């Protein structure tokens, strides 16, 4: 999918009465193959932001669309407009299934399916069977020897690699990963991030991933964006979290190769 995702000052507010939390995204975009690392202290709205970007929650205002990249073809998608449609749930569900891939913190695997069947689920839902790409992902992520197993006997690291393969199997434009290494030790966390970013780049997917571990993100070459929250001066019980782009910097280690092991 040769698209670019455009985020134009999305805003969402939670709470009622005097206690409120507001998220403001600013205006930015992300292209296929690009990696955006999202960090910020707990309580600044990282998961809320990913829910809005993943069409799981409607914004209160702002623009959000996917348009063909320069020289690309295909339809444009007005995601913000989907939420205003009488068919909002159906439109957003279809876009989630075809346009996005998700890597949750817990893996979220289906226990009654094998590894290979879990990976193939997104291809079936999106109507994009591709046995060759599925086999390549299993190889890239070191899952060939356990492809016939159910998730039960797998290690935590293996389960998270299956979740990564599943998120990429239908070749989505954008992969959204919410704290994908939270349950992993540092060594496995670094390996999982390397594999996620390498496989996403190989498939041409944009990647937006959040992590509370800013030093872990700093080890990779990627765009960095940060959420910071502060009380509204006019209403101290109203917290506003704002997303800003960090200054470019070199990774602490060598950039990840395009071909992940």
DSSP helix fraction: 25-40%
SS strand fraction = 25-35%
CATH topology: Rossmann fold
Q: How many domains, in number, for the residues? A: 1
Q: What is the CATH homologous superfamily assignment?
A: P-loop containing nucleotide triphosphate hydrolases
| CATH-level-2 architecture | 3-Layer(aba) Sandwich
- The total beta strand count reads 11
Shape: globular
Word description of this protein:
This protein is an alpha/beta fold and about 260 residues long. It has a single domain, classed as 3-Layer(aba) Sandwich (Rossmann fold), CATH 3.40.50.300. It has helices at about 45-55, 80-85, 90-100, 115-125, 130-140, 155-170, 185-205, 215; strands spanning about 5-15, 20-25, 25-30, 35-40, 60-70, 75-80, 100-105, 175-180, 205-210, 225-230, 235-245. Strands 1, 2, 3, 4, 5, 6, 7, 8, 9, 10 and 11 form an eleven-stranded mixed sheet that branches. A hairpin with a 2-residue loop joins β1 and β2 (about 20-25). α6 (about 155-170) packs parallel to α7 (about 185-205). The chain is globular. The chain starts with a strand and ends in a 16-residue tail after the last strand.
Question: Could you give the topology of this structure?
Answer:
Elements: E1 3-16, E2 19-24, E3 27-31, E4 35-39, H1 46-53, E5 61-68, E6 77-78, H2 79-84, H3 88-99, E7 100-103, H4 115-126, H5 131-140, H6 156-168, E8 174-178, H7 186-203, E9 206-210, H8 214-217, E10 223-232, E11 235-245
Parallel strand pairs: 2-11, 4-9, 4-10, 7-8, 8-9
Antiparallel strand pairs: 1-2, 1-3, 1-5, 5-6, 10-11
């Amino acid at each position: 999918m040769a698209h670019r995702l455009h985020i134009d000052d999305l805003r969402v507010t939670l709470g009622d009465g005097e206690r409120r939390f507001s998220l403001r995204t600013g205006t930015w975009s992300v292209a296929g193959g690009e990696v955006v690392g999202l960090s910020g202290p707990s309580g600044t709205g990282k998961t809320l932001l990913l829910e809005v970007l993943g069409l799981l929650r409607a914004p209160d205002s702002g623009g959000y669309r996917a348009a063909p990249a320069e020289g690309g073809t295909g339809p444009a998608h007005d995601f913000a407009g989907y939420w205003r449609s009488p068919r909002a749930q159906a439109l957003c569900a279809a876009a989630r299934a075809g346009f996005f891939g998700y890597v949750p913190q817990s893996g979220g695997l289906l226990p009654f399916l094998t590894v290979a069947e879990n990976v193939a689920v997104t291809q079936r839902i999106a109507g994009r069977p591709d046995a060759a790409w599925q086999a390549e992902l299993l190889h890239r992520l070191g899952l060939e020897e356990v492809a016939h197993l159910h998730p039960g006997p797998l290690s935590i690291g293996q389960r998270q690699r299956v979740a990564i393969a599943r998120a990429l199997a239908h070749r989505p434009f954008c992969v959204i990963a919410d704290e994908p290494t939270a349950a992993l030790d540092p060594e496995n966390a670094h390996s999982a991030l390397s594999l996620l970013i390498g496989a996403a780049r190989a498939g041409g997917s944009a990647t937006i991933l959040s992590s509370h571990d800013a030093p872990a993100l700093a080890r990779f070459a990627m765009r960095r964006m940060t959420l910071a929250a502060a009380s509204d001066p006019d209403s101290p019980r109203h917290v506003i979290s704002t997303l800003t782009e960090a200054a470019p910097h070199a990774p602490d280690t060598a950039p990840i190769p395009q071909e992940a092991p």
